[in-house]
Design goal:
The structure holds two protein chains of two kinds.
Chain A: E1 3-7, E2 10-11, E3 14-15, H1 17-29, E4 31-38, H2 42-52, E5 57-62, H3 72-85, E6 89-93, H4 96-109, E7 112-120, E8 126-130, E9 135-141, E10 146-150, E11 165-168, E12 181-187, E13 201-205, H5 215-225, E14 228-231, H6 233-237, E15 258-262, H7 268-271, E16 279-284, E17 297-300, H8 303-318
Parallel strand pairs in A: 1-4, 1-6, 4-5, 5-11, 6-10, 7-10, 13-14, 13-15, 15-16, 16-17
Antiparallel strand pairs in A: 2-3, 7-8, 8-9
Helix pairs in contact in A: 3-4, 5-8
Chain B: E1 2-6, E2 9-11, E3 33-35, H1 37-53, E4 56-62, H2 68-77, E5 81-85, H3 95-107, E6 114-118, H4 129-137, E7 141-150, E8 154-161, E9 164-171, E10 174-178, H5 190-196, E11 201-204, E12 223-230, E13 238-241, H6 246-256
Parallel strand pairs in B: 1-4, 1-6, 4-5, 5-11, 6-10, 7-10
Antiparallel strand pairs in B: 2-3, 7-8, 8-9
Helix pairs in contact in B: 2-5, 3-4
Classes of the chains: A alpha/beta, B alpha/beta.
The complex binds flavin-adenine dinucleotide and adenosine monophosphate.
Function (chain A): The electron transfer flavoprotein serves as a specific electron acceptor for other dehydrogenases. It transfers the electrons to the main respiratory chain via ETF-ubiquinone oxidoreductase (ETF dehydrogenase).
Cofactor (chain A): FAD
Family (chain A): Belongs to the ETF alpha-subunit/FixB family.
Chain lengths: 319, 260
């Protein structure tokens, strides 16, 4: 059975959930081999989780340069593994970095690139959701190796024990003339809330929230539901909430079990990032707001009355 | 300093977008076509760099004949000239083939210092074409810039991603992609619109950029779409008006769905 490489997404010594989803998908296609690229000492902390989700091999590519250059260290490691291991596929998370790593890898290895897959079958056919969920398509590559980026949260991670054999892999020296140097880094504040694209529940606020201070109303509701917080572009552009939380066409695509939209009109570009959510609840004072066209439960009302009551009621039922 | 801006014409996100039944390619006729908003910001950033450093801004676009309108818009904002790669053979090209064509088109231009692209297009959302073009040119990539500085020798950006904000630097020539937070693009002035009509646009075929027709297009794409269909539309559920118990009613609904 041929190998299927999975690029491990990790932060602060932990495997991110999407990696476990990718390992699960990889098992359908062949023998999953996790690829860890990071500074020295990274793989040791991740090995247990990777093995518990079926990694039969763990390629360990550790070097100080991994954190000093943008994208190219991962591409270089994967490219050399593609030529030595001849994998059926390389699975990469469809994140900002992941999409770029996959793109460069596909070019360098002459492989077909399937992007933002929401599912993958044993034949390597990927399912895609297009135009924000308005269209569905499936596609496959005609090349020996397929490079696939998979949207976080689209495959259910299932545990399966693997051999987890660690194999050292080289991080080729970076050429400063062809690579970009990372000279500073200000990590995003890691709050206690779940990551937006991984969360089971997302509570989002729009322009109707009115100010950055008022977003506390959204955050309180989110915390009572154990949810991630999202925002519309109008809320982000008005400075109410930071850009990395934008949901929509040009922001994040989310597909949680529950999406709660407060003070969001439901413009087509916002819907493009959330309309595949399983259940949608909307609160808006305008009964004609388009968000109600896709809401499973729509509440016409003032969010400043409805949201705090909703938060209290959830808390009450918990205790 | 010579700057290339990669611009793409896309179906307007406000209109209904679909794929053609015949070959699963983007049905360009069914929707209004516009210059992708992110590329207006890329053009703006190129113009700002030109204003500070001097030089020329060249627009490079791959797309069917009507992409000309998007090119004219970029020229009316203030870009100096354009290269339009337009060829029947390109129909159905995938992201890898698009990147090859764009890199080849850039290769026909003399001494390019900086290429500026959008971070992600609103139609394909590959979010990978800029990185692939950098790979093909053998240049550093500085992507997802929310701020860009260049002195004509090197370039530095603030890169905003999920991990936080990184400062990334490289020597020119280099490729930068920008996010929608980088600037507010200028509106073309009446004078700009008139001037754009006279600016040079060279239309190149696949052969003109040095590729052969069997390297591009649907037939030779390394990926193939095997099926496509509109997703079943999402139906609206119930809509109630808050009479003072709205929050409690939502919790009741959620508990009925086993969501709380
Ligand atoms: C190329 C492009 C890309 C875009 N990408 C995105 C994207 O990624 N994400 C995105 O969200 N948008 C995106 N947009 C913008 C989109 O078109 C809308 O402008 C935006 O989604 C509107 O945000 P909003 O619903 O918060 O604001 P508005 O449309 O202003 O709606 C505010 C709503 O709040 C309601 N409201 C006000 N006060 C209250 C109250 N007290 N209680 C209850 N309800 C209240 C109002 O009735 C109104 O419906 C994009 C647009 C373009 C052209
Ligand atoms: N056909 C094209 N012509 C010119 N530029 C393009 C084309 N396709 C993609 N690009 C550039 O690459 C960016 C990202 O596109 P994508 O990788 O398709 O999401 C766009 O904003 C453009 O700058």
């Amino acid at each position: 059975m041929s190998e299927v490489l999975v690029l491990v997404d990790h932060a602060a010594g932990e495997v991110r959930k999407v990696t476990l989803e990718l390992l699960t998908a990889a098992r359908r296609l062949g023998e999953p081999a996790a690829v860890v690229v990071g500074e020295s000492g990274t793989a040791g902390k991740l090995a247990d989780s990777l093995t518990a989700y079926g990694a039969s091999k763990i390629y360990v590519a550790e070097s100080a340069e991994a954190g000093q250059y943008l994208i190219t260290p991962q591409v270089d490691v994967l490219a050399s593994l593609v030529s030595s291991a001849q994998p059926a596929a390389v699975l990469v998370p469809a994140s900002i970095d992941g999409k770029e790593i996959a793109g460069r890898l596909a070019v360098r290895t002459g492989s077909g690139l399937l992007s933002e897959a929401v599912d993958l079958d044993a034949e390597g056919v990927a399912a895609h959701s297009l135009f924000g969920g308005a269209y569905q398509a499936s596609a496959k590559a005609t090349t020996a190796t397929t490079v696939v980026t998979v949207l976080p949260g689209s495959v259910e991670a299932e545990a399966a024990s693997g051999a987890g054999e660690q194999v050292t892999a080289e991080v080729p020296a970076q050429d400063a003339g062809r690579a970009a140097t990372v000279t500073g880094h200000q990590p995003a504040e890691a709050g206690d809330r779940p990551e937006l694209t991984e969360a089971g529940v997302v509570v989002s606020g729009g322009r109707g929230v009115g100010s950055a201070e008022n977003f506390a109303v959204i955050e309180k509701l989110a915390d009572s539901l154990g949810a991630a917080v999202g925002a519309s572009r109008a809320a982000v552009d008005s400075g109410y909430y930071p850009p990395q939380f934008q949901v929509g066409q040009t922001g994040k695509t989310v597909s949680p079990q529950l999406y709660v939209a407060l003070g969001i009109s439901g413009a087509i570009q916002h819907r493009a990032g959330m309309q595949t959510s399983k259940t949608i609840v909307a609160v808006n004072k305008d009964p004609e707001a388009p968000i109600f066209d896709i809401a499973d439960y729509g509440m016409v009302g003032d969010l400043f009355k409805v949201a705090p009551q909703l938060t209290d009621e959830v808390e009450k039922r918990k205790s | 300093m010579n700057i290339v801006v990669l611009v793409k014409q896309v179906p307007d996100t406000w209109s209904e977008r679909k794929l053609s039944d015949a070959d699963h390619t983007l049905d360009r006729a069914s929707a209004d076509a516009v210059l992708d908003e992110i590329n207006e910001r890329a053009v703006e950033e190129a113009l700002l760099a030109k204003e500070a450093q001097g030089g020329e801004v060249t627009v490079v676009c791959m797309g069917p004949e009507r992409a000309n309108e998007a090119i004219r818009k970029a020229l009316s904002m203030g870009a100096d000239s354009a290269v339009h790669v337009s060829d029947e053979a390109l129909h159905g090209s995938d992201a890898v083939q698009t990147a090859r064509t764009l890199a080849a088109a850039i290769g026909t231009l003399e001494s390019v210092d900086l290429v500026i692209a959008g971070n992600e297009s609103t139609d394909g959302r590959a979010g990978a074409v800029p990185a692939m073009v950098a790979e093909l040119l053998g240049w550093p990539q500085l992507t997802y810039a929310r701020k860009l500085d260049t002195d004509g020798q090197s370039v530095s950006i603030e890169r905003e991603s999920d991990a936080g904000v990184a400062t990334v630097e490289a020597n020119l020539p280099a490729l930068v992609s920008v996010t929608e937070k980088i600037n507010e693009p200028r509106y073309p002035s009446f004078k700009g619109i008139m001037a754009a009509k006279k600016k040079p646009v060279s239309t190149l075929s696949v052969a003109d950029v040095g590729l052969s027709a069997d390297e591009v297009g649907l037939g030779s794409a390394p990926t193939q779409v095997v099926s496509s269909a509109p997703a079943p539309p999402k139906e609206a559920g119930v809509k109630v008006t808050d009479e003072g118990e709205g929050g409690v009613q939502i919790v009741e609904f959620l508990s009925g769905q086993k969501l709380v």
